[in-house]
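Design a sequence for this backbone.
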């Protein structure tokens, strides 16, 4: 179901913080999006599923743009 390219990638502080907010406050996240956001948090501190983390960042960017915000990451 999920790719497993585990490695260390550069995750911005702002992306990690936003991912944690979504994980804590949005019960309606799909299993896939929840996994992607968890990988963003993991990527900030160590190895992560690179493809999933990048997809999670893109999901958060798209979500910010729908609210009229410019993402900081």
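Sequence:
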């Amino acid at each position: 179901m999920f790719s497993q390219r585990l490695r260390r990638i550069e995750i911005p502080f702002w992306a990690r913080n936003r991912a944690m907010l979504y994980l804590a406050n949005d019960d309606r996240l799909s299993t896939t999006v929840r996994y992607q956001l968890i990988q963003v948090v993991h990527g900030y501190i160590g190895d992560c599923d690179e493809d999933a983390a990048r997809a999670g960042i893109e999901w958060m960017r798209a979500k910010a743009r729908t609210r009229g915000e410019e993402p900081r990451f």
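Helices lie at 13-25, 31-45, 50-66.
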